[in-house]
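Render this sequence as a predicted structure.
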Amino acid sequence: MTKLTPRLRPLARFLLTTTALVAVAPVLAQAASLDDLETLGTNSVAYAISSDGSTVVGSTDFGQFTAYFWNEADGMTGLSSLGGAPGTCGSAANAVNADGSVIVGYSTGGAQTYAAVRWDGLAITELTNGYASVSEATGVSGDGDIIVGNRDNGGTNEAFIWTGGSGVMSDLSGVAGESYAYAVSSDGVYVGGASDVGGTQVAMRWSSGDGLETLGTIDGFAGYSYTYALNADGSVATGYSQSAGGNQAFRWVEGVGMTGLGTLVGGDASYGQALSADGNVIVGFSASGGSKTAFRWTEFTGMESLVDILEASDVDTTGWTLDQARGVSADGLLIVGIGTFGGTNHAFLMTSDALITPEEFAASLAPTAAPGAQSQGMLGNFVTQLFSTTRNIISSYFGQGFQQTGSLPLRYAANDTGVMSDASPAPRGLRTAVYATGSFGIGKFDDYSNSTLNGTTGVLLGISDELAFGFGVLGNRADQDTHLDGDVRTNALGGSVSLAYEPASGLRLYGLAALARLDVKTDRHYLNGAAVDASRGETDGYGYALAARAGYEFPLNASVNLMPYAELEWDRTVLDAYTETGGGIPATVGEQNDHRFVSRLGAEASTKLGDDTVARLRGAWGHRLSGGDGAVQVTALGIGQSIRSGGSDDDWAEAGVSLTHDVNRDLTLSANLDTRLANSSSRDATLTLGLVYRLN
């Protein structure tokens, strides 16, 4: 029967880690923060982080302990097992390559109790094992082409190496007896682990060119030692060694040898688990009795607990325990490990001024995409409002519309009804009026309340009985609540033009354009340790919208007109890049440049409600032709990701009802209610009120 490896052995680990949790902790030398990773199940453990800091891997309790990866874009994602979909069989992800594209670990569900596997993206492949025995992958090179691990060889644990070129496991040539492999340098040259020296396991470094090199023990102590991690080129190693003072984390440097790192105050043992690309940052844990405390070591600071680092930057760690640091990014700024918060298992991300779980980190960055989506929704509201003005006010006030029976001249908007008579008034000269509209919209987007206050004012010109033109200024204020009572506020100020061609019956044409300057302020909230922290940003830019509608109006009966129509709308928003200030996790947000191209097919029915009032009922089906994904590049805690807003639906239904009423010869009032049944940055319901005052 194969021995259990001293660091990993999945079946035993299943039983021993049912209360384990995942922790991701970026550690920045100048500051600190603490956040939470999203979990698929109830408990999760983080075993490694990619060199670029983008991807965390480990296992989570998802009915079965299940391998997962986490990144900012996808959140926590379960990986398939040899038995099928995530959660169907036990699995764990032990290591990840430099950019997060290749993950290695083990899975059950195959011919063996458990087997070494490689995930390339979401596809799982079992590594070919000539012994047909249990195996587990524990390390992977930066390019993902070299994998190391352990397998059973007739009851003895044997280190193996697998390469993409050979496609099969092989032993480490020159290494005899019991051996273990836990790490491979990023360049793929060196393997780190332990080999048998006189019946005792001793830390080793191995390469195909140089063969086996034993690293010894601290101060030459007669005991065992294990290499758990290598730096990028294999010139520095860490792990633990027996010493006169007990088990102790070490740092081994090529040409220098092994040095003990000691323990935290009160500790009786320590274990190095990972190190940065240059080997100058080591993370692990110190033990005292049955308790563990995660540490970071540098030559300048020595060994420090992660909690002390955070509290030195005034991060509230109340309720947190940081038990083990298990991985670190190449630059030494991001750390992954095992801990709890409030007695519940959580993953966390940490810098020296930030401690945050991965799901909290993801939730906190989602609002960075809100300004672009909010601006798109604002332009859509302008289009709705301007079409309302064009159709309900401009065209009916100056155009043919519903005309009054008899030879009386055109007087009021509501009295213009083409269905009532074929009579047309004599052509008149240029007519002028002023208009003002205001709207209030409410809704939800990305599960947060989303409201807007919008207004336009301008001048209307009746060029003829069939053609009307308007131009004016517009303004808007939009507010969207975000995570933990944060918010995004966008103000817009600009101008608009609109045009309506509307003869007594038949073809109807409407067009409009709007251009606005955008000013955005963000107040992004997140849990940093146990307290809510905030980072704030400001940016500006511009947006424009172009829209056209073509319809054909005809009398359905003596009192109702019907107009089927088609509409196209093009919006574009551009917001400058900005960097937030304040808080433990400020983000740098890239330029947001997005467009939205949509079409609508609908119909509008018009009818008179008395001599002075016209009612219109509209229904339409909208479709997004392109754009509107709201992606933005965001960097926080050294992690660069593409963040997308919740996204608008590709298809949706719209409906609207409006009333236009002539108060007297000179004044016309209107009210319009529009609704949209879709997940969208546009509002779910918008009420628009307007007036037109005729000057001549």
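Summary. The longest strand covers residues 531-555. Helices lie at 10-16, 306-312, 358-365, 370-398.
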